Amino acid sequence: MESSNNSRDVRIKGLAASPGIAVGRVLRLDERGRHQFYYMEVSAQQARAEVKRLREAFAEARAQVKEIRSKLKGELGGQHEYILDAHLLMLEDKHLIGEAEREIRTLRINAEWAVRNVADRVAGAYRHIRDPYLRERASDIEDIATRLLTTLSGHARLNMSTLDRDVVIVAETLWPSTIGELDLNHVLGFATDTGGLTSHSAIIARAVGLPAVVGLREVTRNAQTGDAIIVDGTAGEVLLRPAKQGIRSYIEKRERDRARRLETSDGSTEPAVTIDDVRIKLRANVELPTEVESLSLFGAEGIGLYRSEFLFLNRLPELPAEEEQYDVYRRLAEATGDDGASIRVFDLGGDKLTLEGFEDEVNPALGLRAIRLSLKAREIFQTQVRAILRANSTGHLRIVLPLISTLGEVREAKQIIDEVKEELASSGVTYNPNLPVGVMIEVPAAALMADKFAREADFLSVGTNDLIQYLLAVDRANENVAYLYQPLHPAVLRTIAHLVRVAQKAQAPLELCGEMAASPIQAVALVGLGIRTLSLAPTSIPLVRNAIRSIDLSRLRPLLSEAVKLATTAEVEALLGKHLPRQAPQFFAALSSLG
Ligand code: PEP
Ligand code: MG
Questions:
Q1: Do residues 160 and 183 lie in contact, with contact meaning Cβ atoms separated by under 8 Å?
Q2: 511 in ligand 1 pocket by Cβ < 6 Å?
Q3: Active site residue 200
């Protein structure tokens, strides 16, 4: 792996997205749109294959530009053709192609990295030219580099799923699809420029139990593939090119941290009961089918949220077929037995993947996402429902509808579910008609109207990740506004208190599956507000269970009643910070030593 000759060490603060410490070497992913690629050393034989890929990419890019040119000519006449002529000339430039091929052969690197290197060099040279017209050519070079990289990413590419050494992934953004593609056996941790604590890359990093720091803003600018790096996912910082002494002390810290985590995840399946004997149910949030094996290890009582859209990882535009879905859902049903599993129907869009043809929305968080997309792409929804109904052999699967804003959406979804049942029955297919349908409370309008939803849904599930995003109008994945993403904001606490009241009155089961449930302090606050079922990353269950076992609800309840009357998040934090350590001294002392 290439090593950086820049010995200056850099410390960058970000958001502590997934706890633990990783010490290793950087593998920097570069990115064009949603295509990510990275530097890789290749053998002489692979280099020949890379040269072939490069030539094919040039040929395809030329064909694309010619097609656009003739289309433009048809629409605008001939006068704008010269822009594309310039691109075509560059794509035909033997010197340029030859230089990229030479990079592959002599440096033994992948085609993507060769294109990036050559484009950076040529664009850099143009940028230094005084003549403004020629200087502008740098952006043309960028443009064709993007086209080539996109083209390369669409072809069979070097396989990121067979990394041959341990690396720390450094990227601008970590797309769930990239994580799905990586060989996680060789990934030690993640560091990204963008992202908030509930962005999906942070959620997956926690799910796979790897340390991660997000929202670093400038880590990709500072890091080179091969640099030494320390990711402190507990403190939320990254050290690039640290001195030997620093590396040693972090390795020691990593070992202490691991030992403490092992202590708390001792495989205990003691129930989460408060000192005054109130039982809290801890269920698991699951993204990857492989996590299912760890449920009993962490003592999860079934799956409270299966994020089914992760079935789309790495495969769009291809869709997961009914049989494949059936197998996965049946596995979930069997693994969770009587505790059961709630399958959240595809929650595509927003900051996740979306279906082909729906990618270009100006404001995806408010766009055609989640249930809105399922109701539009009806066949995909029907297929999913069919697979769930058929897989529910144990009778303990449930369906959850994401991002519901209106009762109309619930009724329409239920009608589709009924139609699928009828269709299965009339064609003689075996299925289980008993499938409770829950509504996720993630939109403020749904929270305000929860009494109405409680009557038509079999249960309510509060998705605080999105609920906070929409309540406080703060993008959950945007590091620039991460300071405003405040789970303990009094408005959030009041909304949850309202939901608890409404659900109790309607006698509707209420659970909560946002990331708040995975933070011991916030989880305790939720219990104090009256939530009795939490669903969280399996790896966080032991810590949250310990927190719950250390509190006395009769003392916690009045604390939360006071918290909802406060005016600011800082006041809430100060109140909890003062009283929780007094109420559960041992647990909170241990917790602060983890940081
Ligand atoms: C939520 O929004 O709280 C939630 C659980 O769903 P997701 O994080 O997948 O959007
Ligand atoms: Mg959500």
A1: yes
A2: no
A3: yes
